[in-house]
Amino acid sequence: MPMSTMSATGPSRCSLRVATYNVHECVGTDGRHDPGRIAKVVTELDADIVALQEFTYPASVALETRSPVGLTMLDRYECALGPTRQTKRQECFGNALFTRHPIVDVHRIDLSMEKREPRGALAATIEVGGRLVHVLAAHLGLRLRERRFQVRQILKYLDSVRHTFFVVLGDFNDWLPGRSVVHVLDDRLGQQTRVASFPAPWPVVPLDRIWVHPTGALRRIFTHATPMARVASDHLPVVADIATSRSIPGVRPLESAPIKGSDPFTPFHSSDSSVNCPVLSPSFSMGTPTL
Questions:
Q1: pLDDT at residue 289 above 80?
Q2: Region 250-273: what's the mean pLDDT?
Q3: What top-level class would CATH report for the domain 5-243?
Q4: Are strands 103-110 and 120-128 parallel, antiparallel or unpaired?
Q5: Is it the case that residue 274 has pLDDT exceeding 50?
Q6: pTM of the model
Q7: Which of 193, 211, 192, 204 is nearest to 235 (CA)?
Q8: Is 239 exposed, middle or buried (0-12, 13-18, 19+ CB in 10 A)?
């Protein structure tokens, strides 16, 4: 499947459209903070499920709310929140999933390493036309060692849903030849199309990725590169169309693909705190850049 850049034309009746979008706290390449503009880009996508990274919302919002926090014009969606820290403006910052289908279950997975920016993933079960789809949305760290640890945690989650229909997507911050750990996900899930999504005005780096299991369900992956998307954030959205027909070949168990030379897996950890927004770790420096 060739790499492609296009605008969304809408999924067919027998397909599911998913997207991943790092919204950069709703600050565009023009320096404007404009959540309404981000909401318009999401509307352009016409996606059933959208994973957002670097998403912010008021810390007073309850963690388990399902209303479209911060992007209220997206009233056809419900959301799941996965905050990883609190900003200096008393906002929650992290991951979010927006979906036009009912959310059945949500788990929050801590991917943080000491003295690095807190990171996390959202694992949600979503009912799509009577079928359960598992979705893991993640935002990985900037350091190779971080990403090794984080990919191990993701692999543990994949082991728990290995017989199901699932999607893995997000900003994986993994692009340097010879220093990639995301290739382990390619080995496990099949090497799926990588499209350049960063920086948004002239994308050259494939930071944002989507994998689908079973791989035969994937129809296409592309970047959404409308004029508004090129300015609304520093990343372009990446979109995948997935066949949902029950005639797709059956889901088979995934093959194990450990990271060579790595330490043993750390325990799978899911956090469902009653606290609205986690407090920023005092060992983390706010000077750490985020992509």
A1: no
A2: 43
A3: alpha beta
A4: antiparallel
A5: no
A6: 0.86
A7: 204
A8: buried
Phi/psi of residue 34, each to 5°? -145, 80
> In 10 A of CB 27, how many CB atoms?
18
3-state secondary structure the chain: CCCCEECCCCCCCCEEEEEEEECHHHECCCCCECHHHHHHHHHHHCCCEEEEEEEEEECCCCCCCCCCCCCCCCCCCEEEEEEEEECCCCEEEEEEEEECCCEEEEEEEECCCCCCCCCEEEEEEEEECCEEEEEEEEECCCCHHHHHHHHHHHHHHHHHCCCCCEEEEEECCCCCCCCCCCHHHHHHHCCCCCCCCECCCCCCECCEEEEEECHHHEEEEEEECCCCHHHHCCCCCEEEEEECCCCCCCCCCCCCCCCCCCCCCCCCCECCCCCCCCCCCCCCCCCCCCC
**What residue type is 103 in one-letter code?**
I
**How many CA atoms within 13 Å lie on the side-chain side of 157?**
29
Structure tokens belonging to residue 117: 């920016």
Non-local CB neighbours of 285 within 8 Å, separated by 6+ positions: 115
Residue 26: which of 73, 80, 76 has the closest Cα? 73
Q: Which residue from 58, 62, 92, 65 is spatially nearest to 80, judged by alpha carbons? A: 65
Higher pLDDT pick, 269 / 213: 213
